[in-house]
Fold this sequence. Notes:
The structure is a homodimer. Chain A is an alpha/beta fold. Chain A has 15 helices and 16 strands.
Amino acid sequence: xxxxxxxxxxxxxxxxxxxxxxxxxxxxxxxxxxxxxxxxxxxxxxxxxxxxxxxxxxxxxxxxxxxxxxxxxxxxxxxxxxxxxxxxxxxxxxxxxxxxxxxxxxxxxxxxxxxxxxxxxxxxxxxxxxxxxxxxxxxxxxxxxxxxxxxxxxxxxxxxxxxxxxxxxxxxxxxxxxxxxxxxxxxxxxxxxxxxxxxxxxxxxxxxxxxxxxxxxxxxxxxxxxxxxxxxxxxxxxxxxxxxxxxxxxxxxxxxxxxxxxxxxxxxxxxxxxxxxxxxxxxxxxxxxxxxxxxxxxxxxxxxxxxxxxxxxxxxxxxxxxxxxxxxxxxxxxxxxxxxxxxxxxxxxxxxxxxxxxxxxxxxxxxxxxxxxxxxxxxxxxxxxxxxxxxxxxxxxxxxxxxxxxxxxxxxxxx
Amino acid sequence: xxxxxxxxxxxxxxxxxxxxxxxxxxxxxxxxxxxxxxxxxxxxxxxxxxxxxxxxxxxxxxxxxxxxxxxxxxxxxxxxxxxxxxxxxxxxxxxxxxxxxxxxxxxxxxxxxxxxxxxxxxxxxxxxxxxxxxxxxxxxxxxxxxxxxxxxxxxxxxxxxxxxxxxxxxxxxxxxxxxxxxxxxxxxxxxxxxxxxxxxxxxxxxxxxxxxxxxxxxxxxxxxxxxxxxxxxxxxxxxxxxxxxxxxxxxxxxxxxxxxxxxxxxxxxxxxxxxxxxxxxxxxxxxxxxxxxxxxxxxxxxxxxxxxxxxxxxxxxxxxxxxxxxxxxxxxxxxxxxxxxxxxxxxxxxxxxxxxxxxxxxxxxxxxxxxxxxxxxxxxxxxxxxxxxxxxxxxxxxxxxxxxxxxxxxxxxxx
Lengths: 415, 415
């Protein structure tokens, strides 16, 4: 049995205890929050080693910033865990129920998924966030973070494990894989005897690798090639405001937009107004021929690649379309199925767009930046699913559960 | 582009039409039912070829029987399709909804999964059943049946396609892969650009192969290593009746039981009563040492392999356990997570078993044979999921849907 198989086995055993742990889970979460605060110095010291290693390895300032854990960030990490304790426990919720003709009472109830694996990259706060959400829903978790944050992750995981145990739950409810070689991720992806689901959190490359290689069920998260379509009847200033917000309020996240589509009958008026907003943050526009006719040569020509790219930067592709159908077809071809928006005053266009666009979140007259567990009222978020199976869009504790049927009879047999 | 990729593309295009097809789907289903009846002769002729080929290939009488389609079976196939038309359409159902503090109306609504692949074995009636359920939930389907039934499947699929088109839906809403080589299944398992989910229906070997090889999301179905636990406080005759029913009413199906676990304090009285029932159908019992002490040498010794095996036959493994915890631990170790039952009169034992046993269906005092979409009131069933992601237990049309968030705003942007 390898180290990781052994972790799988221990996680499965812990998950059986967690499945019926009830309110002890909240006691454990609050103990974790206390312990994170109490051990701030320890975490900061471990984090300092990661930061030094990161500088030596030439990480960019923005990556170093994501890696850094000061006492403020540790405090907000602990507050996040406390908030998870306050969410309603989904386990035991009756989803549906009825009595059959022969008198059996059937109920379908929510149960934990069991053992969840999380593969993630540089941000060490994911260690606490993800573990807390998994625990809340009664799951054991095996974390496999990036090598850049390994010392921070080890410190956080150790503190959480001790706190969970002190609250009376199995110490192996939370485990961290300390080996950050490629081999350890591959082993986790193949751990089908123990893992009920694997959730990758990170860039497109990581997610694709996991989806292609994993033999365990995976929930695909996060890649967002998002669009705003400006309909013929749009309020132009509203369109410009939404596009400006969706592109520039935080370009590096998955719910930021990458391409706008503009109806030909409004393009001449709308494009200059949109450009005026985008110019405030020096957004580079890459446009189709018709866009360039209107906005001039400061707009570089857009290629097919541009329409496929999640820029995650101050770059926006732009295409003039002949109709709402053209916009819907473009989205069907290029979107990653995350979030799309129509800006319109027309009732029929709004309905057509929301029913025909096949993405996790479809907006009328609001910024795609709202696609987020917190904004959608889920309390906290383990990730944003861009697949259709099991969960779609922002996933909270409810999405970390399965169901089972409980059938209470009095001796019934089947004919 | 290969033949199967091209089918994927056509299915995706068809799925976009089906997503908003509404009641036309029912018109199409009724047209399919009519066409199946009208073309009975054609189906029977095609089926005769399969039967002749099957005899020549040395198929067993029971396999030949599963393959055979007389006019009665075709009629019941058509009736099955008509029943699917009568089920409520899940598409558009609002799962939840609320208004955010900033005035956005968020609703989570059911939408089709998109394109579903089904890989199945010898029974040609699956072609009609599965296609009807997928269509009802607004999905395009790509069917890949076994080579034994290929002529029957081709006839049925062609009839369905024509009928669906006559009702005004895309002919490629239903497609059958005519190439029954291994290569065609492998291609389908890798069709990640087009397939939203792949559902294998068949024996353990097929399901394992699909789970291990597929790069698209899979719903694992059907393998049932099911248990009955006879608690210390059980009504002995009820236990014997349930065991007899769950083992012998149809041993070849996944909800039949394979092992019984008997509390040591009731074993001496219960085992002879259980054996008396099982002897009516000459069920072979393979028991642990304590079982053999009570029932004698007619019981062969059980091995670890026996506890792992889905016999699908008149064979039953038996183990005497020291406590309900022993029963729960045995089930945790050997069960495939399908259906388990406790026979008990004790309130606490019933609750402990239903909360601690981690299977899709957990029974108190009723036969596991009820785990079935029809019996559970789902109308019809595409399969029984033994995984925890997306769907668990019998799956009907609701389990062939996903959700999306629709957000209606009035210009909201995110701070």
